[in-house]
Design a protein that fits this description.
mainly alpha, about 75% helix
């Protein structure tokens, strides 16, 4: 019998149905504690009645041995009991109601337990049949399920970014190979050239699992670095990256962090993304000359020339560029100066 081929969507649906097994232990525990509680209540109530009877009996016997005054006290107590005698009529009813409630509860819980046990057996059988149909062990099925829901997005993210910049394939392959410590270049080529397939999950698991936030942030920086290759980040790449930040569930603060860090490397960008929409202070051209010098443009340079100079300098000195791996601190200082110069001139 051949394996049942399922799309990722169908696999997730059938896996969740097959592994939805009721908890028999919780039902049994609830049943036992509830029954024990009712029985304990009945025992306490009967013990109270017996203790009361014994108490008054001892008073009666002790009173008969003493004088007239004690006999009077006894008969007063007896009168109080007689006056409250109608209440004793309800005692058998209360005992009967309690016992009936216990019996009903036991019966109800036994029926529920039997029904849950049947569902449990049916779910176990459904799970076994599911695993046989897909030809996997439970461990393999769980790995595929987790991969589809949690890890496939990382494989697909690499594919999306790399497909937008095919002319830099050799650089992409080398970067991914170094990042994941792949020994075989063919594995990276296969990853980038093929659509995600259900039969590939075993190969991907272990390489693309992102275990903590730090790894997720580093992976996202890798995506930006893949887009940077050659001439920087184009608009189509930038849009994909912004969407991926949302898909990867980064909060607004980290999205702003990525925007601020990589915006200088965009081949096209809008001024508002540099917070230069409004100017709060006026600087004469003479005061701004050092900033023009940093960008390498004249004081009379056009907006387009300033943007182009800013972008070209970012492509030279950005700390996330592979060529600057050996001078990260120096590159960060240089980029801080370039960013300051651009913002001062634009304001």
């Amino acid at each position: 019998m051949g394996k049942k081929k399922l799309s990722n969507k169908d696999f997730v649906k059938e896996y969740e149905e097959a592994t939805n097994i009721p908890e028999i232990l919780s039902t049994t525990t609830k049943f036992c504690f509830l029954t024990l509680g009712y029985i304990s209540l009945l025992i306490v109530f009967i013990s109270f009645v017996i203790s009361t009877i014994i108490f008054f009996s001892l008073i009666f016997l002790d009173t008969l041995k003493k004088g007239f005054f004690n006999v009077v006290i006894f008969f007063l107590l007896l009168l109080i009991i007689i006056l409250n005698a109608p209440a004793l009529v309800f005692l058998p009813l209360l005992i009967y109601a309690t016992i009936r409630k216990i019996v009903f509860t036991i019966k109800e819980n036994i029926e529920k337990y039997i029904n849950d046990f049947k569902q449990y057996k049916a779910a176990k059988k459904r799970k076994k049949n599911f695993l046989v149909e897909i030809g996997m062990s439970m461990r393999e099925a769980t790995r595929r399920y987790n991969f589809i829901l949690k890890e496939a997005i990382y494989v697909q993210s690499l594919q999306k970014i790399c497909k937008l910049n095919p002319q830099t394939r050799s650089g992409q392959v080398e970067m991914i190979k170094n990042w994941y410590k792949f020994k075989d270049t063919a594995l990276v080529e296969y990853l980038l050239n093929n659509e995600y397939n259900e039969s590939d999950f075993n190969m991907y698991v272990g390489h693309f699992e992102i275990k903590n936030f730090s790894e997720k942030k580093s992976f996202t920086e890798l995506l930006f670095k893949l887009a940077i290759l050659e001439d920087g980040i184009h608009n189509d790449e930038w849009k994909v990256l912004m969407n991926l930040l949302v898909e990867l569930k980064f909060n607004e603060n980290y999205i702003e962090y990525f925007k601020k860090r990589y915006n200088p490397l965009r081949t096209e960008f809008d001024d508002y993304e540099h917070n230069t929409e409004t100017a709060n202070e006026y600087h004469s051209v003479s005061l701004l000359k050092p900033y023009y010098d940093i960008l390498g443009v004249d004081e009379n340079a056009s907006d387009e020339e300033i943007k182009r100079a800013y972008h070209n300098l970012a492509l030279q000195h950005h700390p996330d560029l592979a060529k600057n791996a050996g001078r990260v601190k120096e590159s960060e200082l240089m980029m801080a100066k370039i960013n300051e110069a651009y913002e001062k001139i634009r304001n």
